[in-house]
Amino acid sequence: MKISLTNAGKRFNRDWIFRNFTQEFTSGIAYAITGPNGSGKSTLLQVIGGAMMMSEGSAKYTIGNGQQAIDKEIHVDKAFQLISIAAPYLELIEEMTVQEFLQFHSQFKPFLPGFQIKDIIAEIGLQAATHKQIRFYSSGMKQRVKLAQAIFSNVRCILLDEPCTNLDAAGFALYHQLINKYCNNRLIIVSSNDEQEYSFCTEKISILDYKKVGNRQS
Q1: If 0-12 CB within 10 Å is exposed, 13-18 middle and 19+ buried, where does residue 75 land?
Q2: Which member of 11, 44, 137, 156 lies 3.0 to 4.6 Å from 141 by CB, making a disulfide possible if both were Cys?
Q3: What is the pLDDT of residue 218?
Q4: Within a domain: 101
Q5: pLDDT, tens digit, 9 for 90 and up, residues 112-168
C-alpha cells in the first residue's frame, strides 16, 4: 500500500497546524511522526488516515494490483477499510467484555487469517480477564485491547498514536513484540515524542519542519 500526500495542510480557524507536507508512505516501512506535545502530530496522523479532511493539498491511496504494472487507486472514502488505528482519544465500549468487543470489531474489520479471538486475548495476556467488563480494566489493560484491535485487524496500514500510553515495562515489551511478529510487511506510522515508542522506525518526520511557513491565514 502507498499513501501519498502532496502539499497537504490543515488549519483550525486561522491557525495552520501544518502546511506544505509532501510525503509518500509505503508498505514494509515504519515511519515516525515526531514533535512536542500539542504540535499537531495527532492531527497529521488523522489526515494521513483520511479520518480528517485537509484544508489544502491532496492525498492518494493505492494498493498493488497483482501482476498489473499500475497500482489500483482507492477513493479516500474507502481508505478506512485498509487502515486501523490505536489512539488514546479512541474509546472502547466499556460495557462489553474484551471477547465481546473484539467480536463486535471483527464485524467491521476481520482479523488476520488464522487468528481466533481467544488467540488474540492470549497474545495480549488478558486471558484471566476475558469475561470481565472492560470498564473494570486498568488503563494499561485497556491500552492492550486498543493495540490488539489495531494490530490484529487484517489491514495494510496501522496508525499508532502514542501507542504505549498507560503501559508499564511489560506493556512496552509486549508492544514491541507485537510489532516485530505481525507488522513487518505492513505500513506502520507512529505518532509520538517518546523514542521508545518508535525506536523500530527507519523513517522519521518532524512535524516542526512543516510549521515554519505561514502559520496564520489572513
Answers
A1: exposed
A2: 137
A3: 40
A4: yes
A5: 999 999 999 999 999 999 999 999 999 999 999 999 999 999 999 999 999 999 999
Pull the grid cell for residue 107.
464485524
Instruction: Show the beta-strand stretches assigned E in 13-147.
Output: 15-26, 30-34, 56-63, 72-74, 83-86
Instruction: Determine which helix (DSSP H) or strand (DSSP E) holds 104, and give its type and residue range.
Output: helix 98-106
Domain extent for 154: 2-210
> Cell for 153?
485487524
| In a domain? residue 74 | yes
* 215 domain residue, yes or no: no
Instruction: Give the model confidence (pLDDT) of 170-206 as tens digits.
Output: 999 999 999 999 999 999 999 999 999 999 999 999 9
Q: How many domains does the chain have?
A: 1
Residue 216 lies inside a defined structural domain of this protein: no
Q: Which residues contact 186 (CB under 8 A, 6 or more apart)?
A: 1, 27, 28, 155, 156, 157, 158
Task: Note whether 33 and 205 are within 8 A (CB).
Answer: yes
Q: How far is Cα 50 from Cα 45, in angstroms, rounded to an integer?
A: 9
The arithmetic mean of pLDDT across residues 75-92, rounded, is 93
Is the pTM higher than 0.70? The answer reads yes
